[in-house]
Amino acid sequence: MQVVDFEVSNKLMAKYKILTPRTVFVKLEKEAQKAAKNFGFPVFLKIYGKNILHRTEIKGVGEAKDKSELGKMFSEMMKIKGTEGILIQEKVQGKELIIGMKRDAQFGVVIMAGIGGILAELISDFVLRVAPVSENEALKMLAELKGYPYLQGKRDKNPINFKEAAKVIAALSEMGLKEAEIKEITLNPVIVNEKKAVTVDFKLLK
Predict the structure, then answer these.
(1) Residue 15 burial (CB count, 10 A)
(2) Distance (Å, rounded) from C-alpha 42 to C-alpha 80?
(3) Quick check: 206 and 14 in contact, CB under 8 A?
(4) Which of 19, 62, 90, 138 could pair with 39 in a Cys bridge, judged by C-beta atoms 3.0 to 4.6 Å apart?
(5) Which helix (H) or strand (E) holds 76?
(6) Could you write out the DSSP letters of every residue in 87-137?
(7) Rounded distance, CA 45 to CA 188, Å?
């Protein structure tokens, strides 16, 4: 499988009304500095390449707190094999979910939702459903997670907006059913706070 082009992926996210942070694809440091100035520091840098499937494993993700740090990080990332450019992205704060779609030979389009970010692989807290998945069913998925109390804000008094998170799950279900050329989708993390759900990193494979 191959990573879907960034611009095409972006258009699909917009088509299904999946909110993403402001992101610019650049190839030159001066373009990166201009984007960071517009967004305001800190910003995230993420390498992009059609054959790069796992950025974090090859040090292809970083957070720059100022111009100097951005310049150094940009230079290092552009040296990574397979890098076609860098994504400069504004920082979003909240709790992290992972939401995904896979095509299964037996069940068809399968939707996954779980606790995301770096915790995704450590705790394996996720649930599955066969599409179509409605917003109401998506809410039930979230309620089944072991981390549900965490999402409710039991410890830090910062509950997520469950309705907005459910909208993303339902939208991914719809995308999976309608966009047959897309074989697999991973949204990780989806940052959710009390107001909105923003898909910070997404990977579409065809």
Answers:
(1) 13
(2) 22
(3) no
(4) 90
(5) helix 67-77
(6) EEEE---SEEEEEEEEEETTTEEEEEEEE-TTHHHHH--EEEEESP--HHH
(7) 15
Q: Indicate the residue type of 46.
A: K
The pLDDT profile of the chain, 206 residues, written as one tens digit per residue, is 889 988 899 999 999 999 999 999 999 999 999 999 999 999 999 999 988 888 888 999 999 999 999 999 999 999 999 999 999 999 999 999 999 999 999 999 999 999 987 766 777 899 999 999 999 999 999 999 999 999 999 989 899 999 999 999 999 999 999 999 999 999 999 999 999 999 999 999 99
**Residue 199, beta-bridge partner list:** 190
Q: Where are the alpha helices (DSSP H) in 157-202?
A: 162-178
Q: How many residues does the chain have?
A: 206
Q: What is the pLDDT of residues 101-154, one digit of tens each?
A: 999 999 999 999 999 877 667 778 999 999 999 999 999 999 999 999 999 999
Q: Which residues pair with 57 in a beta bridge?
A: none
CA-wise closest residue to 65 among 93, 48, 45: 45
In one-letter notation, the amino acid at residue 26 is V
